[in-house]
Hints:
Blueprint: H1 2-20, H2 26-33, H3 39-60, H4 76-92, H5 96-104, H6 108-126, H7 128-134, E1 145-148, E2 156-159, H8 163-180
Parallel strand pairs: 1-2
Amino acid sequence: MSSIILALVIGGIFGATLDRIGATSPDWIGKMLALKHLHLMKTILLAIGVGSTLMFVGQMLGLVDVAHMSVKSAYVGVFIGGIMLGIGWAASGYCPGTGVCAAASGRKDALFFIAGGLLGAAAYMATYPAWEASGLLNSIAGGKVTLGAVPGSKFSGVSTLPGDILGVILGLILIGVAFVLPDRLVGGPTAAEVPAE
């Protein structure tokens, strides 16, 4: 019971944070994907970089149990699904997590997004045998692999670099990119951002 309560508390904090940084606003997401307002992208890069660095440093220090590491299988369908997710994200202004948070914050359009996602999942489940027979779900690159092998984990790496070190390096790179990335890559400042004379 305590794990369910903890999950609800952490989920609530995470959802409130997503709402606070603008991740539940289709307008902000659209501007981010158009490279006109990168605040949200910088926040995402910083969060992934800090999380990666802390997780892999924690594993090296023995504070994080490697047995909790979960790696999904690589297969062609994952890449196709990723492209479809990106198109859907750009078209709707939501990804699955931000859509649920937006619905919780009262956005009615997010309810249609969630309904569409559930219908898409049901369609996939109903047609799963056909997708499986097509070969799109067959593992590639050894299936469950990581960029570098993490000592003590059951997953092999595609490179000879230690996975912990590689995870920390990539995390630090993402943190650096978050700090040096400009506020926008396309367009000039909006009227609200031009200083008064």
